[in-house]
Hints:
Blueprint: E1 2-3, E2 11-12, H1 35-47, E3 52-57, E4 66-76, H2 82-87, E5 98-105, H3 113-127, E6 130-132, E7 139-142, E8 147-152, E9 155-160, H4 163-174
Antiparallel strand pairs: 1-2, 3-9, 4-5, 6-7, 7-8, 8-9
Amino acid sequence: VAYRPQKTESNRSRLTVGGDRINYPFEVSTPTADLPTIKMLWNSVLSTPKAKFITMDVANFYLGTPMERPEYVRLPIKIIPQEIIDKYDLEQKVEDGWVYVKILKGMYGLPQAGLLANNLLSKRLVAAGYYQCQFTPGLWRHVWRPITFALVVDDFGIKVSGDVHANHLVQTLKKHYD
């Protein structure tokens, strides 16, 4: 629980799944840019006339991603605020002091959340003409636009020449993310 006055929803509650208790038998690693890649991108911006460096962050990146298979969690009813119990009529769903929850979209703490969110983002970027560089994880380019970016989870470090090209990436992301 936190109070973040700079956010749209200033009173925030986040639930994190105990990922250490989930058996996810598949690969979960996500390709992200490393520090040398980011340093080379910065050097490229500095050595390219009229190039700019822009950063962007995708809000709630994991939270909207559909799961390939559901996960389940149980919560003790005693930790759930009465307002939530009343709103969702949870009293009728309590079994031995627990409420069982089916997780259908990504949540913080799920081992597979990062990979699923990254795979969905990748599909959306590819559809807009972006591609991940073959030998440099987390480094992306556009097929013809002068734009290159490093991607680390939901943070973009972008080298761009021309606002129209930066706006293309922004609009591509805004179709699906805040």
